[in-house]
Amino acid sequence: MQPRKRVQLSPAASGALFYFSFYGAAATYIPFISIFYAQRGLSGSEIGVLAAIGPLMALLVAPGISAMSDRRGWRIRYLVLSLAGTSLVLLALPVPTSFAWFLPVVALLAAVGSASIPVADSLVARTAARRGLSYGKMRLWGSVSWSVVAVVCGTLWQQTGFFLMFPIASLLFLATIFSALQLEEERPIDSQVRPPLRLVVADNRLRVVLLATFILGIAMSSAYTFSGIYLDSIGGQSLVGLFAGVTAACELPVMHWSEHITRRLGGPQTLILAYSLFGLGYLGLAFIQWAPLFLGVALVQGLGFGLFLPTTVRLFAEWAPPEWASTSQGILSAGLWGLAPLIASPLAGLIYDNAGPAAVFLTSAGALVVAGLVLVLAQIAGVFGPKREGGVILKRET
Q1: Three-point CA angle 284, 262, 253, nearest 5°
Q2: Cα three-residue angle 135-379-262, rounded to 5 degrees
Q3: What integer pLDDT is reported at residue 87 of this predicted model?
Q4: Got the DSSP string for 115-179?
């Protein structure tokens, strides 16, 4: 008998399968984790502390792990270990009965998974750039699974409770290892040949987009923290899962066409359009009084996120040196999902306590105006023009 050949997916299919698997697993518990904590008797301040652990790990742990995976060529190896660790720790999450015991478990869960998406994004985005594939068309499959699973699980957990939530999530993360092993990884460059790490942060284009993304992260974190609470206060508790599902579903068409839009408009202009859609959604939140209208906001936010994410990830993948692909995505993640939420959560809480939810959403819309201005001013200053070295154009803005 001849040995069975290993099934090898195409680069486009492997990237799509990974995002579909990963975000489907995450959607089984992330939209409902705060409700789970509340049912376990945790106070609002305790839930807030637990919610801040993930951003803290994204800021402190993810960049270092991403850089190590770049230096040693361990991107896929780390991704597999991260998925396995996440799967194991999720099984322990239902065990604690007090805040003191939840704290170390949640911290461990956040630490082992902190660099999963930066490393995976670097693998998939670099493959897309190297092979001329559309990154958005692969990433949209994560939105497909998130939208379906969030809606289904929102209904399921209302009927059964949360006792099955973490075992199912654990099994799904374990299954995601198969798709991680299908991803392509470039060979590591010898340290004597590898360009210095300072090149990642020396590129003014990356600095500008990172600053704008950080401001967007503040707006997005502020609005996300209190949109569910506000939705519940106006009688829309049953719409929480549907809101998440509709948002993800509306990301699909723009992610599918994101490459065409970016080529037509240019990277910075595409981001400005995305920021405008986010801002429009937050203005809607500030004035809505009827819960079903939240689904209209979900549509606009989904369109904005579907433009913003693949465009930003792709720009970082193309502008940063290939040898520091994971590191650049780790820096992006640290700003967007780490430092921004840490600043936004207490600030938005103060605004909410003193001025109400509408003021939080108006502040988020104002932050999007600032983020857009950062890109506009940089473009006027020629930051996104052709990059030159010795008078020779090296690379044009995507």
Answers
A1: 55
A2: 20
A3: 95
A4: THHHHHHHHHHHHHHHHT--HHHHHHHHHHHHHHHHHHHHHHHHHH-STTHHHHHHHHHHHHHHH
Token pair listed for 67 = 């850089």
Reference 125, options 183, 49, 72, 63; nearest CA is: 183
CA distances from 272 to 141, 174, 248, 310, 376 (A): 24, 38, 20, 14, 8
The tens digit of pLDDT for each residue in 286-324 reads 887 776 676 777 788 888 888 898 899 888 888 877 777
Q: Tell me, what amino acid is at 155? A: T
Helix (H, G, I), strand (E, B) or coil at 184: coil
Phi, psi of 156 (to 5 degrees): -65, -45
Q: What's the one-letter identity of residue 15?
A: G
- pLDDT tens profile 136-169: 889 889 888 988 888 888 788 878 888 889 999 9
> Which single residue is written with the structure tokens 């650049």?
328
Q: Are 123 and 75 in contact (CB under 8 A)?
A: yes
Task: Label residue 41 left, alpha or beta by phi (over 0 means left) and psi (-120 to 50 means alpha).
Answer: left
Exposure pattern of 129-140 as b/e (b: 16+ CB <10 Å)? beeebbbbbbbb
Question: What's the CA gap between 103 and 320, in Å, rounded?
Answer: 36
Let me know: does 298 contact 250? Beta carbons within 8 Å.
Answer: yes
Contact yes or no for 24/145 (Cβ under 8 A): yes
How far from the centroid of its chain's Cα atoms is residue 178's Cα?
A: 21
**Inter-CA distances, 138 with 127, 142, 149, 317, 365, Å:** 11, 8, 18, 15, 29
Do residues 316 and 206 touch, judged by C-beta distance below 8 A?
Answer: yes
Q: Which residues contact 116 (CB under 8 A, 6 or more apart)?
A: 22, 79, 82, 83, 86
Distance CA 149, CA 147 (A): 6
How many beta carbons lie within 10 A of that of residue 110, not counting itself?
21
Spell out the residues 6+ positions from residue 242 whose beta carbon is closer than 8 angstroms to its own: 151, 154, 295
Which tokens in the block code for residue 277? 């859609």
- Report residue 86 as tokens: 């996440």
Instruction: Tell me: pLDDT of 214 over 80.
Output: yes
Which among 171, 166, 63, 169 has a CA at the least distance from the CA of 117?
A: 63
Nearest to 116 by CA among 244, 237, 21: 21
